[in-house]
Write a structure and sequence with these properties.
Layout lengths: L3 H9 L1 E11 L4 E14 L2 E8 L5 E6 L7 E2 L5 E3 L9 E9 L2 E10 L2 E12 L17 E5 L2 E5 L4 E6 L9 E8 L5 E8 L14
Antiparallel strand pairs: 1-2, 1-9, 2-3, 3-4, 5-6, 6-7, 7-8, 8-9, 10-11, 11-12, 12-13, 13-14
Length: 207
């Protein structure tokens, strides 16, 4: 039987080297910095520790059971955020796992739209250096419209899915992360909220 907790550990446990790229609400890069993240199980608890490499500052958390608002797929992709959307500030996090690599999206949204977007590239162990495909210059995201949604592309093969900012009446509010790798395999997760702003179950549907 599918166990979300076990799936999270199976695909995400270990030591990850990361590059965080922070954008403002208009998708203009503001800064980037290196991180290291350790995720492991100890004495029945899942322990997570994120370290800012240059400053040494650490942020840690631990939990025995998964938060109610956390969604985990059978392939270890996961999302985190509120179970009910309000009109005020909210934070959404998405992660897709591709063997020894991950891509993450962290979104902070206020009453007037996006406040901040963070795109994260992570590698595990000796998989290589964690950095976007354009490591020495600011990332410039291109966007396309698809129905009532916007698709932003931080690097080849990766798409970030948002509701179009000028659309007020939508059937669903969504945030999505999709990665088509060099082998042609697709890894994706979409966090969906209904018109009533309630979190919906995971679905393989993209848009």
């Amino acid at each position: 039987m599918y166990d979300p907790r076990q799936s999270l550990l199976e695909h995400n446990a270990g030591d990850w080297q990361g590059c965080f790229v922070r954008f403002n609400g208009s998708f203009v890069e503001q800064e980037r910095f290196e991180t290291s993240l350790g995720l492991r199980e100890s004495q029945g608890q899942i322990q997570v520790c994120l370290t800012h490499v240059s400053s040494g500052q650490e942020h840690s958390m631990h939990f025995r059971t998964l938060p109610d608002q956390m969604q985990v797929s059978e392939t270890g992709n996961w999302s985190l955020g509120p179970s009910f959307l309000t009109l005020s500030h909210c934070a959404i996090e998405l992660c897709v796992v591709n063997q020894q690599q991950r891509r993450r999206l962290i979104v902070q949204q206020g009453m007037n739209g996006l406040d901040r977007v963070v795109y994260v590239v992570e590698v595990k162990g000796e998989a290589g250096q964690a950095e976007p495909s354009t490591p020495r210059r600011p990332l410039v995201m291109n966007s396309t419209q698809c129905g009532g949604y916007e698709l932003w592309q931080p690097e080849p093969g990766v798409e970030l899915l948002f509701n179009a900012r000028d659309r007020e009446e939508v059937e669903q509010t969504v945030w999505g992360l999709r990665w088509r790798d060099c082998r042609g395999e697709t890894h994706q997760i979409v966090r969906r909220y209904s018109r009533q702003r309630l979190l919906e179950p995971l679905s393989p549907q993209w848009i």
